[in-house]
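Whether sequence alone determines local backbone shape is best considered at the level of individual chains. When preparing material for the folding task, we compiled for one chain both its residues and its backbone structure tokens. No coordinates are needed to read the tokens, only the vocabulary itself. For completeness, the protein is quoted in full, as a sequence line and a line of structure tokens:
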Amino acid sequence: METNDTQQEILLFTGTTFSSGQWTEKDGAADAAPLSEKEKLAAACWNGLLLELLPEIYRQPANAEKLYLWHIREGVSFLELDLGTSPTVVDGPSSIDPYLFLATQCNN
């Protein structure tokens, strides 16, 4: 029996009022070194605040399996979040990561 894995990619752009928000830290690391905007946003996502931050884009898969955050890639002006039911390899041409799909556009 073949299983279908659900994958969702999300781009969070930095340098915006949303990304510069004050994110609540669950760990209470007040003594830690100050973090950059990208690091704070990535930490908020890793700490499980993604559903609270963006409830309108979170989609439950049809098979009712939970999506997990597997990877965060950092670009020059964005963070790309990879969510899925299991870790998967991102297919370049069908990805929303501009570094992946623009490379294939130049070949056409």
About this structure: The mean pLDDT is 76. The chain has one domain: 7-105. Helices lie at 37-46, 50-53, 98-105.
